[in-house]
Design a protein that fits this description.
Shape: globular
Strand content: 15-25%
CATH class of the largest domain: Alpha Beta
Helix content: 25-40%
CATH architecture of the largest domain: 3-Layer(aba) Sandwich
Number of strands: 16
Bound molecules: NADP nicotinamide-adenine-dinucleotide phosphate
Distance between the termini: 27 Å
CATH superfamily of the largest domain: NAD(P)-binding Rossmann-like Domain
Radius of gyration: 20 Å
CATH topology of the largest domain: Rossmann fold
Largest sheet: 8 strands, mixed
Length: 362
Amino acid sequence: MRKPRTPGEGRSLPERRSDGEEEGSDETMGAVRWGILGTGKIAGAFAAALTELPGAEAVAVGSRRAVTAARFADRYRILRRHPSYGALAADPDVDVVYVATPHSLHRDNTLLCLEAGKAVLCEKPLAVNAHQAGEMISVARERGLFLMEAMWTRFLPAFARLRELLAAGELGEPRLVRADFCIRRPREPGSRLFEPELAGGALLDVGIYTVALAAAVFGTRPERVTGLAHLGPTGVDERSGAVLDYGDGRLAVLSSANRTVTPNDALVAGSRGWVRLHDPFWSPQKLTVAIGDQRHEEEHPFRGNGYGYEAAEVGRCLAAGAGESEVMPLDESLAVVETLDRIRQPWGLVYPGEPTSDPMRS
Ligand SMILES: NC(=O)c1ccc[n+]([C@@H]2O[C@H](COP(=O)([O-])OP(=O)(O)OC[C@H]3O[C@@H](n4cnc5c(N)ncnc54)[C@H](OP(=O)(O)O)[C@@H]3O)[C@@H](O)[C@H]2O)c1
């Protein structure tokens, strides 16, 4: 296998500390040169985060239309603007592309960039189904190129603290994860949240955070998956509940919605104690930690809008010549997409282009 591309020469990037902070940034080092693919909401948040991240620079943007590329480039002071995704992928001055398009395009957009020799940070979920995700991972590994799912939550200080508590055995054996990601969005025509063609639905858009949390805590695939969903008028899930059985009595109880608001806390409980990740649990700044009969609250603020942490991780991996991140490994992203497939399979939710009712076999 070819060694993954390393951006620039002789560059060192900030080290990651256990609190998610960085140290050792050097104003003089060469920056990782980012290309941004797509100019929607999250692309803007990510571009804004890059402007505040040492050792990173957004150098190019690609859009389906020249006018939107130019508007985005002007707003975030990006020099190179491309009127197609292909032109961005071919830009020799780009080290890594951030794919920020709707779910149904993640596979094709990522493959376009990998085939042009670019490293890729792809928005969540890595793909619509496990078959697609497996294809992307195979191409990245065959070509020796870096690929990571943009599960930004993983890199925030509160999550680093949760990992620390679990690794140190402070909570005992993990037994139960409870998490809700329920929001209300308007059911507008063409919205990626509700369009089957764009792989809409609450599970793939927000429920994935609950499944990714359970995957991080239990570190394995569920043995059994059960649940129910309400499918809305466009045919995608608008509310659902799932119970995942990880064996040995380990359970995850998860809900997601895109037409109903709830408090969005998460709880990780072990044999000795528990941690509450306060609403919104996917970007928490506060934890309650209870061990035995002792309970305290912890503040874990993050810098800026929080998206700089995942970009910093990509920078570290590229500088180290790593093909993937240890914090968000590709096999875990694949396991999460497989679990999403298993959750929605009994609902009969099949996205356009999935040839059978079992997307894992498509
Ligand atoms: N990490 C997070 O916190 C977070 C938050 C929100 C969303 N996301 C993820 O980010 C991705 C994009 O979400 P978003 O909310 O940014 O979406 P969005 O605002 O709808 O933007 C998506 C962009 O994709 C491009 N695109 C290409 N083909 C498209 C099509 N057929 N329909 C619509 N857009 C198309 C468009 O850019 P051009 O017109 O420039 O080509 C569009 O601006 C999703 O995978 C989502 O799950 C992550």
